Amino acid sequence: MSMPKKVRIVEVGPRDGLQNEATPISADTKIELIHKLSEAGHCYIESGSFVNPKWVPQMAGSEAVFEGIQKKTGVEYAALTPNMKGYERALASGADEVAIFAAASEAFSQKNTNCSIAESMERFAPIIEAAKRDGLKVRGYVSCVVGCPYEGDIDPEKVAEIAEKLIEAGCYEVSLGDTIGVGTPASVKTMLNAVLKKIPAEKLAVHLHDTYGQALANIYASLELGIAVVDSSVAGLGGCPYAKGASGNVASEDVVYMLNGLGIDTGVNLDKLIQAGDFICKAIDRDNGSKTAKALLAKCEG
């Protein structure tokens, strides 16, 4: 299969990227980041999460974030919603789209959501039904598609089974997450080939962490199989709070730089994206995790 000519970048920085930061981040800072990301050309921004703030304190102000966004035409502002209460909060706050999440590992599902995979699917049914009624699209996530911090290697057929159930339930797209970043091009392709037997490439996305420095290689391998949607986080912010040592979302700047080099259109302006990453890193006083951003910012300073 030939590589896609266009790739949609799903920007998860404002949610997945910031959710683990220990220092509270104001709604105004998050809103400013979202505005900068939309100005850079992102058409999909995961802007917050309506989870219990007891578990993810950083997302406690998601209502204020969604209500403060000056929405740009053509941009989807999405929210993660683990249950009906979260869905109702997202709907009331003006989210354009919601996302639900399952896991391909029973142990991870229990640790992450305090329920089995089957129980998590049951929880999603009313959310999907309500979203249909309210005219909102639902995106699905599957965690631990290659490896799990508790179970080790994951059977690709299990991933395919969970992804198919999410599509059948009503998700328009399923994002396949290498939550702890242990995948290599070979293991990612093996997993994807299993899923592609059940779901067409146009309904799939990849969410590949860079824990072992393999994310860009794994994204390239995914592109070779026709995947045209890639999740990434500005400045490489974030990771998984339930997977020890698994920090390291792939940086949006690095993904865009690679895709630009391949002649694949993303609609994202790399210079403006780097400015957005530089803004949030300075605002939260942390190093920029994007190699591309570091190189180009140093070049400008030089």
Automatic annotation (TrEMBL):
It catalyses: (3S)-3-hydroxy-3-methylglutaryl-CoA = acetoacetate + acetyl-CoA. GO terms for molecular function: hydroxymethylglutaryl-CoA lyase activity; metal ion binding. Pathway: Metabolic intermediate metabolism; (S)-3-hydroxy-3-methylglutaryl-CoA degradation; acetoacetate from (S)-3-hydroxy-3-methylglutaryl-CoA: step 1/1. Residues 7-274 form the Pyruvate carboxyltransferase domain. Gene3D superfamilies: Aldolase class I. Its EC number is 4.1.3.4. It holds the Pfam family HMGL-like. Keywords: Lyase, Metal-binding. PANTHER family: HYDROXYMETHYLGLUTARYL-COA LYASE. Belongs to the HMG-CoA lyase family. This is hydroxymethylglutaryl-CoA lyase. It comes from Pseudoteredinibacter isoporae.
